[in-house]
Amino acid sequence: MIQNIVLIGAGNLATQLALALVEKGIQVKQVYSRKLESASELAGKVNARFTNDLSQLVPEADLYIIAVKDSAIQEVLENLKLDESCLIVHTAGSIPMSVLEGFSNNYGVFYPLQTFSKSRKIDFADIPICIEANHPSNLLNLEKLGEKLSGSVNQINSEERKTLHLAAVFANNFVNHFYAVGAEILHDKKLDFDLLKPLIRETAEKIQTMHPFDAQTGPAKRDDQAIMQAQLKMLHNQPEFQKIYSFATESIFQLQQKHKHDLF
Amino acid sequence: MIQNIVLIGAGNLATQLALALVEKGIQVKQVYSRKLESASELAGKVNARFTNDLSQLVPEADLYIIAVKDSAIQEVLENLKLDESCLIVHTAGSIPMSVLEGFSNNYGVFYPLQTFSKSRKIDFADIPICIEANHPSNLLNLEKLGEKLSGSVNQINSEERKTLHLAAVFANNFVNHFYAVGAEILHDKKLDFDLLKPLIRETAEKIQTMHPFDAQTGPAKRDDQAIMQAQLKMLHNQPEFQKIYSFATESIFQLQQKHKHDLF
């Protein structure tokens, strides 16, 4: 059973995961970050030791969680000096479990499908935690750890996780960007972004019970050419937004057509 | 003071608005729809008369609300046989108030900035209601009506309303489409869309207190070329999604650059 961990990373995900684990009685023994200040800051929050030297990790934690940005995982692995029996996981959506092969005999993935910020406290209770491991006993340990945090622990392989991450880029990163575009459009005309917030919240709530295809509304769905042309014209000073508007509109239209054909 | 209304339209917005008004003690005297069945269905819910004949509207309601699709407003107006003292509003984001000129001496706009479905009950309490009128006394009446429904009643002119509607197309219609794209991507690989729902909810909650520019995360924000190339490759069977992916990524990058320059 996993009772303590070492956290490699001190970014958004690492911070929220550490806070959540400590709340559930898991000890964070040590926090590593390339920047000593970041390691120290997070370590202070969870009463852990800290280091910026990978060769100085404490040797006998139940689990080592690599929660650094994707492009830094390889370098972290190459600098670990852990016993090969140590259980190591990474937390990345698009990185296969196999990158851990050869660095330990016990490894896996612990991927919470959520967006994290350092400053915004996250309740893990309904976050899907996607786990994968090289051995059933490791999987079981990760499952038990996941279940301490969340009611949704899912065995997901590396291919599936990549697909989830891709879908998440649309549903989170691109969606957030469209919030930002909305904010820009309002800001340019000195209108308050607060006016959009209830709409944004309801848009996200609606698809909790309704399929997004059925929830689609708006000029593109209605094929209201007059409004679409007028709105494109309003964006003439923002050719980037104009381009996105055209493509999103076209894409809505195509998806509607596709599903119309599905019905017959 | 507005104590009763006639509702011209029986679609998503008309339905939710009628239900909300009745709950606040406003009488819906009559519902019109081009389709008698739709008029009858909504009228049944709010204990009103109904008709599919615009020349048969009851003559002395305090307010006539036109809540039909944008492209039908003109035709409705041309077929109204109301006294020119009647107060008439439309509920459309992108249609200027001036379309009502000449059809009555008292007119305005009553635009609730929200997404509506017939079947999903909406709480109006925090929905921004955007009002405009041709005369201060009409404005006051609309303001009082709005305040019965919502804590956020805003005087917004036709130009501003058009901008709000454009921003709403991004933050609602396009956002919902990206939920749908996420659902498609998962469906193709037999993964459950439910896995994305907590992420979608948190993405919308996050910007309630954080500016979306600051809330941006993901491969495009980090300029993680390896992930972006890999994800584009995963979409090779869906060239439409691939195109959207490229444009959204490029647009995130540009907005980040723009704001970076703002700081110096």
Could you name the ranges of chain A where pLDDT drops below 50 across 5 or more consecutive residues?
Answer: none
What is the domain tally of chain A?
A: 2
> Taking Cα atoms only, what radius of gyration of chain A do you get, to the nearest Å?
22 Å
CATH architecture of the largest domain in chain A: 3-Layer(aba) Sandwich
Strand proportion of chain A: 5-15%
How far do the termini of chain A sit from each other?
A: 53 Å
Q: What does the average pLDDT of chain A come to?
A: 95
Gross morphology of chain A: elongated
Question: What is the CATH homologous superfamily assignment of the largest domain in chain A?
Answer: NAD(P)-binding Rossmann-like Domain
- Percent helix range of chain A: 40-55%
How are the strands of the largest sheet of chain A arranged? 3-2-1-4-5-6-7-8
Overall structural class of chain A, as computed from helix and strand content, comes to alpha/beta
The total count of strands of chain A amounts to 8
Main β-sheet of chain A, in a few words? 8 strands, mixed
